[in-house]
Fold DNA repair protein RecO.
Amino acid sequence: MEELVNVKGMVIKHSPVGDYDWVATVFTADRGKITAFARNARKPGSKLAGSVEPFCFGTFKLFAGRNSYTIVEADIENYFEGFRQDLEGACYGTFFLEIASFYTRENNEDKELLNLLYISLKALLNEKIGNNLVRCIYEIKALCIEGEFPGIPGGRKFLDSTVYTVNYIATSPLKKLYSFDVSKEVLSELEDITAEYRKRSIDKPLKSLEMLESLYNVR
């Protein structure tokens, strides 16, 4: 028996199925990462056309079947259309989606990580701080939310400003994360720290990171 449910979430990725359908991976606040079919969404004039693209954030009405979900309606609050004109921002945003996909699990409530993802994507588009700093903040805070933050790496002396920045990110509420900038020296050390965290925590290649490395020298 199918049950109709509403979930708040963001489309992480999608792929074509059959002649007219999409299958979408949606990161939801209450059910974690789910896979849902969007029937006939690739047909011209479909009410779901454009609603199951990556970055689409809103409320999805689903049929919850025994083995799968089907999207019936989508009320999209933010399409993040700015990424269509901002290739660099889109590359960073895709990396954020892939990180979120790695951490979240099906049927695992993860509202704070979803909120972090949302405000981090907005930070990429507002141009108040550089994309690489946004990335570092996002990666560090995601580790904190998932309970995997290891603290300042040992075996190396970091600038006091870097240590302060990492601790500020770890302890601050989400609304205060993207309210500051750092020097080039601190940013370089933050890049080293996040690279080390990633090496410890993520045990598979990230395709979006490979693109960032090749296009924008991200490490």
